[in-house]
Amino acid sequence: MPLECTMVCLDTSEYMRNGDFGPSRLESQQDAANLVVGAKMQSNPESSVGVLQMSEPRVLVSPTDDMGKILGSLSEASVQGHLNLVEGVQVAQLALKHRRNKNGGQRLVLFVGSPIVADEKALVKAAKVLKKNNIAVDVVQMGN
Question: pLDDT of 69-116, one tens digit each?
């Protein structure tokens, strides 16, 4: 696989306490994110991965190739507030913009397990910025 910088964006909203995925959506999301991170890191030794939480968006770890930091930040994510998808995507895009290795592709992996309460115009605007900057987006939907 080619060199790639990936931001894993976690949904840490109150909806992630739901127990429809055992033991909770948050823990299931962390397990899935762990698999994504492992695959990205094994695909190319120079690839880097960062982690961001999307409720009250903040970067838990900047894009790095240190697996220990990444896995530690995945377990550090805690449930709080409501999902802020648009702001989370904007913060992730900025983290990708300021990555160390400017070579290779850019990708966002968004984990979403709660309703998206955002203005359609804001979503379209964020999508256009991502397209303009050649940032690929993968969305993992949890729940119904």
Answer: 999 999 888 888 899 999 999 999 999 999 888 888 999 999 998 898
pLDDT tens, 4-40?
999 999 999 988 887 777 788 888 889 999 999 999 9
Q: Nearest Cα to 34, choosing from 62, 64, 68?
A: 68
> Contact at 8 Å (CB) between 79 and 17?
yes
Taking CA atoms, 31 is separated from 22, 24, 28, 35, 46, in Å, by 11, 11, 5, 6, 23
| HEC per residue, the chain | CCCEEEEEEECCCHHHHCCCCCCCHHHHHHHHHHHHHHHHHHHCCCCEEEEEECCCCEEEEEEECCHHHHHHHHHHCCCCCCCCHHHHHHHHHHHHHCCCCCCCEEEEEEEECCCCCCCHHHHHHHHHHHHHCCEEEEEEECCC
